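Lines hold sequence, tokenised fold; shown next:
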Amino acid sequence: MTDYSEEQRNELEALESIYPDSFTVLSENPTSFTITVTSEAGENDETVQTTLKFTYGEKYPDEMPRYEIFSQENLEDNDVSDILKLLELQAEENLGMVMIFTLVSAVQEKLNEIVDQIKTRREEEKKQKEKEAEEAERQCFHGTPVTIENFLSWKAKFDAELLEIKRKRMKEEEQAGKNKLSGKQLFETDHNLDTSDIQFLEEAGNSVEVDESLFQEMDDLELDEEEDDPDFNPVDLESD
């Protein structure tokens, strides 16, 4: 006859020796305890962790222990689901034998796989961001390829904008023409205009300054020798 209590007690002693810092007894009747499992550190020292809670039944190990995720850190919901499925599979395969160490070891390997998946996912995200950045830079240099459709669309928009600019300019010129006064209207609205020229002359005065340096002295002028002859008579030239 199997002594279930003895097997359970021996396993508890072994577990406490294997996991001295992470093994905690919660109750003795029924026997319930937790073991905290932490993954190996990843590339950036990130880790994932879970605390497993086990409870012995009266006929353990001939019946599966009850198990649950007591707490966890950095695990996604799908990771928790995968761990529970793994525990169920391992418990069924090891039914009839003490199995807690086997279950914990399987979870330990699973956590290490999750850390590797996190590393792979981050590398893929980094590559994707680099690819998107390269594509954006390439678009800046090459621009959008010109097709008949997008050219016609651009031309229609350009023509509409140009037409609107012309309309605004014509409207402004028309408005400016309406506001411009004729000469008669200027005199009628500003009575100072009819005396402005007289006022300007009065302010300038009647004196005119002459710059004598602009004129040469008479001595500098070259005259013909015949004109200097005292006996010169213009009539003689006519008779000749």
Summary: Strands lie at 23-28, 31-38, 49-55, 66-73.
